[in-house]
Design goal:
By secondary structure, the protein is mainly β. It has one helix and ten strands, in the order βββαβββββββ. The strands form three sheets. Strands 4-9-8-7-6 form a five-stranded antiparallel beta sheet, with no helix packed on it. The protein has a three-stranded antiparallel beta sheet with strand order 1-2-5, with no helix packed on it. Strands 3-10 form a two-stranded parallel sheet. A hairpin with a 6-residue loop joins strand 1 and strand 2.
Length: about 120
C-alpha cells in the first residue's frame, strides 16, 4: 500500500512505494528538537515527489549532508534529502506530514543527534 504525505497547504506532496511505517526516530539535534520531526528513512527509488520543486525552499547546516526541504508558502517540512551514514542517498520523511498516520501509535526510537 503506498504512503502519501504533504505540507500543510498541499503545494508539496509525495508518495512512497511502501506501507506506512510503524516506528519513528526522534532526534534531539538542534533542528529536529525545535521542529519536532519524527523521522522515517527510505531510498530515493521509493520516493516520488508529486509537486514542483519551485515550491520548495532548502535549508542545510553543519556538514550539509542533509537538505531539509520546506514549503515556501506554509513552512511545513515534509521531507529531506541527503546522504546516510555510509554515503548512500537517502530520503527522510517527516512522519508528522504523512496522510492519515496516527503518530501516537508509533514506536519511538530516540537518537542522540545533539552529541554528533
Amino acid at each position: 500500500m503506498p504512503t502519501t504525505g504533504s505540507c500543510h497547504c498541499g503545494r508539496i506532496s509525495y508518495s512512497l512505494a511502501e506501507d506506512p511505517p510503524t516506528r519513528a526516530m526522534a532526534c534531539n539535534c538542534s533542528i529536529c528538537r525545535r521542529k519536532g520531526y519524527l523521522h522515517h528513512f527510505t531510498t530515493p527509488a521509493r520516493f516520488t515527489l508529486k509537486s514542483s520543486r519551485d515550491d520548495i525552499q532548502v535549508y542545510s547546516f553543519k556538514t550539509h549532508a542533509v537538505r531539509h526541504q520546506f514549503c515556501k508558502t506554509c513552512g511545513c517540512a515534509p521531507f529531506a534529502e541527503g546522504l546516510g551514514s555510509y554515503g548512500e542517498p537517502i530520503i527522510e520523511i517527516n512522519l508528522r506530514c504523512v496522510d492519515g498516520l496516527d503518530v501516537g501509535g508509533l514506536e519511538i526510537i530516540s537518537y542522540d543527534g545533539a552529541s554528533r
